[in-house]
Amino acid sequence: MLLDDFCAAACWQPVYFRWRPNLPDAGDDHVLELAIAGGVEHLVTHNTRDFGRGELKFDLPRVVTPAQHLKIVKLK
Questions:
Q1: Rounded distance, CA 48 to CA 34, Å?
Q2: How far apart are CA 48 and CA 54, in angstroms?
Q3: Cα(33)–Cα(46) distance, rounded to whole angstroms?
Q4: 22 in Cβ contact with 54 (< 8 Å)
Q5: What domain count does the chain have?
Q6: What digits encode the pLDDT tens for the residues 23-68?
Q7: Across-strand partners of 44?
């Protein structure tokens, strides 16, 4: 039931694979592409190290851990 609720609240976001972020782990590229295409403020992951080492740099999304994200949300 929780997955159904999550999917019901999700917004489908088209991704246009015209560029690649070129992260150290190519398996992470699609995550960053989707975050940028969706215009998110935060990309929440435990894998912050790999996302900060790509060749392309972006102001948003800000890559944060789940704990950092919870602190940010509580402050708002």
A1: 16
A2: 11
A3: 17
A4: yes
A5: 1
A6: 888 888 888 888 888 889 999 999 888 887 777 677 888 999 999 9
A7: 64
| More confident call, 58 vs 18 | 58
49: Cα separation from own chain's centroid: 13
Per-residue pLDDT for 1 more than 70?
A: no
DSSP state at residue 47:
-
Domain coverage including residue 22: 2-75
Task: Name the phi and psi angles at 40, rounded to 5.
Answer: -75, 155
d(CA 24, CA 2) in angstroms, rounded, equals 33
Q: How many CB atoms lie within 10 A of CB 51?
A: 22
Averaged over 9-29, what is the pLDDT? 78
Looking at residue 17, its pLDDT comes to 65
Question: In terms of C-beta distances under 8 Å and separation of at least 24 residues, what long-range contacts does 66-70 make, across chains too?
Answer: 69/42, 69/44
The 8-class DSSP code of residue 28 comes to G
